[in-house]
Design goal:
Elements lengths: L1 H14 L3 H7 L3 H27 L6 H8 L1 H34 L2 H12 L6 H12 L4 H8 L13 H25 L3 H9 L4 H12 L1 H16 L3 H6 L7 H10 L4 H35 L1
Helix pairs in contact: 2-3, 3-15, 4-5, 5-6, 5-9, 5-12, 7-9, 9-12, 10-11, 12-15, 14-15
């Protein structure tokens, strides 16, 4: 009897919910989330509201009027979007092929591709950017190879222009395109691809009519992630770009460090946040539409 009571007591003790479980069951889930919410409010919401308030002192929107009425600032915003779009498309083209190879690879090849994808995260952005500066400059390795092979007679201008910025940013952001693409590609049912081929569809037709639509959620997810990150880049455009390739983050830094104009720099930051949010929201809607169409198919 004693053993029975002891066993039943032990079972009862083991079946009792933990403190976290009791809080959730009693409606105390808010207490569990309170530290996270407090951190979010203090270190994200409050600074964001402070920047918004500082950008329009005494409810004056003159800073925003200045941004959109001055061609210089409008050109910087357009240049930022243009560069972000180009970088996103370059990452999409290269990342799609890389993600496909990563999903299909096995053994040693898979290990090499995985390490090559993750290795850039272990090197700082500044170091990788200056590495590209060494490679792309007029006396760099790439130009020396081109001159040595007789492909060009004079060094090709690969930095201090948009080309250098796109090359550097694409290298930094490529992993952010590959990872969502590879995740979606792993979920594609190979039987559907085989059925399309058996039905007489060519490889090209199978890709555009079957495989690409099924991987479209990954395409859109990687595109929005890459574009959102590229819009706020500062170091790479500052090192590899020229005076005609200034991005909005550089303009914000210049207003703070050189002009010491915190109200105008805050307005520029708010504009960057708003446009990034619009891009993120637009592509987020497209991702949901794509997932819905794939589900219906």
């Amino acid at each position: 009897m004693a053993q029975s009571l002891s066993a039943s007591s032990g079972d009862y003790t083991c079946s009792r919910p933990s403190l976290l479980g009791r809080l959730v069951q009693s409606g105390g889930w808010f207490l569990v989330l309170l530290p996270t919410l407090a951190f979010f409010l203090v270190f994200f919401i409050y600074p964001l509201l402070y920047i918004v308030e500082r950008s329009a002192p005494e409810w004056s929107f003159s800073n925003y009027t200045r941004i959109f009425s001055t061609w210089l600032y409008a050109r910087v915003i357009l240049s930022t979007f243009k560069t972000a779009l180009i970088v996103s498309f370059v990452c999409l083209v290269m990342g799609y092929a890389y993600a496909y190879a990563l999903v299909k690879a096995k053994g040693l090849v898979l290990g090499v591709l995985s390490v090559a994808l993750l290795l850039p995260f272990w090197v700082s952005v500044l170091l990788r950017t200056f590495s590209w500066l060494v490679l792309l400059q007029d006396s760099g390795l790439i130009n020396r190879v081109l001159l040595g092979l007789g492909i060009v007679d004079t060094p090709v201008s690969l930095i201090r222009n948009q080309l250098g910025v796109v090359i550097g940013m694409s290298n930094l952001l490529l992993p952010y395109m590959v990872m969502p693409l590879a995740t979606v590609m792993r979920g594609v049912d190979s039987n559907i691809i085989a059925a399309a081929r058996i039905s007489g569809a060519s490889s090209l037709r199978t890709f555009f009519r079957v495989y690409l639509p099924m991987t479209m959620p990954g395409v859109l997810s990687g595109f929005v992630l890459t574009m959102t990150l590229s819009m706020g880049f500062y170091i790479t455009p500052a090192v590899l770009g020229g005076s005609r390739n200034v991005m909005i983050a550089q303009l914000i830094a210049d207003q703070i460090n050189q002009q010491v104009n915190f109200t105008f720099s805050s307005a520029l930051a708010v504009v960057l946040i708003v446009f990034s949010s619009l891009a993120f929201g637009t592509f987020g809607i497209l991702v949901r539409i794509a997932k819905r169409k794939v589900g219906e198919a």
